[in-house]
Amino acid sequence: MPPPNDFTLDIPIFAKLYDFYKNLSQAIVTFPKTKRYTLGQRLDEITLEVIELIITAGYLPREQKLPVLQKVSIKLDILKILLRLSQQTNCIDNNRYQQLAAQIIEIGKMLGGWIKTVR
Description:
82% helix; elongated
């Protein structure tokens, strides 16, 4: 029997990622044109990959979750670095950076808890 359509709502980290993506999308629009289609696009792509992986992990049996969650952890680290790079190259202002960085840190903590639970 297939899972219900609102399955993603049962994954708390999904809601945090969803909000992060909305805020990131608003920030990317303000990037300078020279960075919007390189750094901005990469941030967008990785965030979407993380969302896909989290949804995938939610559907997997417990014994198959760990490799997917570890992949998410790596992608989050890359996101943190690219986000910091965006701030240091003046693509986003410090306030928006602080907001997005705080969201990523919270997502990382939630992911860490999920990984501990799976182990």
